[in-house]
Amino acid sequence: MTWLVVGLGNPGDKYAATRHNVGQMVIDELVSRHNVKLSSHKSRTHIAAFKLGVGVDAHPVIVAKSHSFMNETGGPIKALANFYSVEPQKVIALHDELDIPFAAIRTKIAGGDNGHNGLKSMTSAFGTAEYYRVRLGIGRPMGEQDPGDFVLKAFSKVEQKDLGEFIVRGADVVESLINEGLERTQTRYNS
């Protein structure tokens, strides 16, 4: 069974280094780690494919970034899932999470969207919330800053010191989820 791993975010250089695109940063790490390249797909996504594991036990994996903005992510991701015959239960959405401290990671399957427009769009397009989420903590803004503005800003200088390790752990979590399942991944990585 093929897995589809989706990094939620906004397209273009303007947003590439923002907190909202941390899921796409993890996709970049997976692409680099598995020595593959993203290419354009007719579903309005950039994708790459690799096998995780060896021999007959290897898992086929498609990683993807949408060309669409966050609130329109669902359509392209659903089209990609349909193209590769991937059921929602084999989809992993990587996304920023305001309600988790910076660099903390939580995994789960299903649940609400907690106001996250990318998850809202995916749930609407799939007609179900029964897909995996890797929730990448970005913390809440200090003081009066609007959360909508906060997620569209780059990580602070202090956060950038730990960002690389955070992204690497995010990729480790994805691989663990595919290879070892949710319960073991939660035990090992849910901080």
From TrEMBL:
Localization, per the record, is: Cytoplasm
Annotated Gene Ontology MF terms? peptidyl-tRNA hydrolase activity; tRNA binding
Record GO biological process = protein quality control for misfolded or incompletely synthesized proteins; rescue of stalled ribosome
Which residues are annotated as site, described as Discriminates between blocked and unblocked aminoacyl-tRNA? N10
Keywords, alphabetical = Cytoplasm, Hydrolase, RNA-binding, tRNA-binding
NCBIfam families in alphabetical order: pth (TIGR00447)
What this protein is called in its record is: Peptidyl-tRNA hydrolase
Q: Which organism is it from?
A: Candidatus Planktophila vernalis
